[in-house]
Design brief:
23% of the residues lie in helices and 30% in strands. It has 434 residues and is an alpha/beta fold. The chain folds into three domains: 196 residues, FAD/NAD(P)-binding domain (3-Layer(bba) Sandwich), CATH 3.50.50; 131 residues, FAD/NAD(P)-binding domain (3-Layer(bba) Sandwich); 80 residues, Enolase-like, domain 1 (2-Layer Sandwich). α1 packs parallel to α6. The radius of gyration is 23 Å and the shape is globular. Bound molecules: dihydroflavine-adenine dinucleotide and nicotinamide-adenine-dinucleotide.
Length: 434
């Protein structure tokens, strides 16, 4: 079988890989030095589009429209761009074996790839209901969403089950974005999740109440405090019903499951130090193994602002960590160094006409401010998180670019707060004056 050698190999062809490639090109890379090896059949693209504009019934986003780096306002890297820059895109190629000591990767088809420097950018995979043995969870028309192939299957099903019934299992990011997308496609949507409110990883009960009210007004039925325990199927093996733990049974032509992700570290188990479920790195995304870097969803890195190692499963960090790793690689080749990664966590989501942003850390006391009536024509509200007398996190729904910048700034500066009541009364004005 063929063996190929490269100076730099990026394993994984998602968001991080694309932004890393752009940074390599900026810093200067010779033709044939860099390869991206991806399981997916297409060049790196902005994954967030898959749960949003990709599913629109009218003028949906399609490739090549959302290849990286359009998501952060940059130029699109089309497949030709990689060619022009002498970067080899090795697509539809899954790496099944990694030997970090031997600096070798092996694909499912048996090809061998040698590298001098490796960047691990394998991202996350979905947790499946079959992983915990839910009865009937392998039925047809039960979907997960991670890659473009998954999105294409879902789009087909939406067409085939026109005006049908959909059940969303999970009340996190996928649950909320897909609930909206399927409703926009005129399906009758129910959402089921075990927690007392949606997005408990980030939302306070006050924030969640707004979204749950807004979704209910759009005709989405929300069922909380229970889980799916089984599925019924028809003679074709297609899902027809979702059975809930509390005894209720919901009709379903389509089921979308979003019950969390898991970083794809299995290839490297036992070969590299791990922490908090990810591959441990330093502030330059260097792992415990020489010449091996890890970026994006798989990296557990020092979050300097909070003096703690963390893993972040969001697109802004995947872009920035990739750029940081490449800058560090190039600098060290010249005997130079770069500044430590100093990341301010930034998460966002969009659904229906809504758009929120969050910056910082969601710990400590919370203060809700603004107009969070789901029936308002233009709701605008937010929340601050306060720890040790300082604002450490800020959330804003419906903000304009300037206001979003203000909440980012407040989370970075961490100004002291005299009283929570004062903060509540001032609301967004508090952030705007910092
Ligand atoms: P990413 O998952 O992008 O890429 C990993 C790549 O590695 C994939 O191409 C995969 O096929 C490949 N791969 C894995 N194992 C391999 C192997 N063994 N061999 C070869 N290739 C392999 N975030 C946010 O902040 N705002 C948002 O709105 C959204 N929206 C969103 C929607 C959807 C549907 C998803 C799934 C995720 C989001 N996210 C998000 C999260 C964000 O997309 C995510 O954090 C980044 O894509 C992570 O980038 P990575 O490069 O680490 O992984
Ligand atoms: P998540 O962690 O956001 O949410 C998982 C949810 O699953 C929990 O909130 C809970 O409600 C639910 N849950 C857990 N077990 C359940 C069960 N047995 N039955 C029913 N519900 C159950 O994960 P996700 O929404 O699946 O997203 C997957 C990945 O994609 C994450 O990495 C996420 O960051 C990423 N993503 C991000 C965005 C964004 O940032 N806007 C959008 C989409 C996806």
């Amino acid at each position: 079988m063929a063996e190929k050698s490269f100076k730099y190999v990026i394993v994984g062809g998602g968001v991080s890989a694309g932004y890393a490639a752009r940074e390599f090109a900026k810093q200067g890379v010779n033709p044939g030095e860099l390869a991206i090896i991806s399981k997916e059949a297409v060049a790196p693209y902005e994954r967030p589009a898959l749960s949003k504009a990709y599913l629109f019934p009218e003028s949906p986003a399609r490739l090549p429209g959302f290849h990286v780096c359009v998501g952060s306002g940059g130029e699109r890297l089309l497949p030709e761009w990689y060619k022009q820059n002498g970067i080899e895109l090795i697509l539809s190629t899954e790496i099944v074996k990694a030997d970090l000591a031997g600096k070798t990767l092996v694909s499912a088809a048996g090809e061998t790839f040698k590298y001098e420097i490796l960047i691990i950018a394998t991202g996350s995979t979905v947790i499946k209901l079959t992983d915990f043995g839910v009865q009937g969870a392998d039925a047809k028309n039960i979907f997960y969403l991670r890659e473009i192939d998954d999105a294409d299957k879902l789009v087909e099903a939406i067409k085939a089950k026109k005006n049908g019934t959909a059940v969303i299992v999970g009340g996190g990011y996928i649950g909320l974005e897909l609930g909206a997308a399927l409703r926009i496609n005129n399906l009758d949507v129910s959402m089921v999740y075990p927690e007392p409110w949606c997005m408990p990883r980030l939302f306070t009960s006050g924030i969640a109440a707004f979204y749950e009210g807004y979704y209910a007004n759009k005709g989405i039925k929300i069922i909380k405090g229970t889980v799916a325990t089984g599925f019924s199927t028809n003679a074709h093996g297609e899902v027809t019903e979702v059975k809930l733990k509390d005894g209720r049974v919901l009709e379903a032509d389509i089921v979308v499951v979003g019950v969390g992700g898991r970083p794809l570290t299995t290839l490297f188990k036992g070969q590299v130090e791990e922490e908090k479920g990810g591959i441990k790195t330093d502030a330059f995304f260097k792992t415990s193994v020489a010449d091996v870097y890890a970026v994006g969803d798989v990296a557990t890195f020092p979050l300097k602002l909070y003096n703690e190692n963390r893993r972040v499963e969001h697109v802004d960090h995947s872009r920035k960590s990739a750029e940081q790793a490449v800058k560090a690689i190039k600098a060290s080749e010249e005997g130079k160094s770069v500044e430590e990664y100093d990341y301010l966590p930034y998460f966002y989501s969009r659904s229906f006409d809504l758009a929120w942003q969050f910056y910082g850390d969601n710990v400590g006391d919370t203060v809700l401010f603004g107009d969070n009536n789901p029936e308002s024509p233009k709701p605008k509200f937010g929340s601050y998180w306060i720890k040790d007398g300082k604002v450490v996190g800020a959330f804003l729904e419906g903000g304009n670019p300037e206001e979003n910048k203000a909440i980012a700034n407040v989370a970075r500066v961490q100004p002291p707060v005299e009283s929570l009541d004062l903060l509540k009364n001032e609301g967004l004005a508090f952030a705007s004056k910092i």
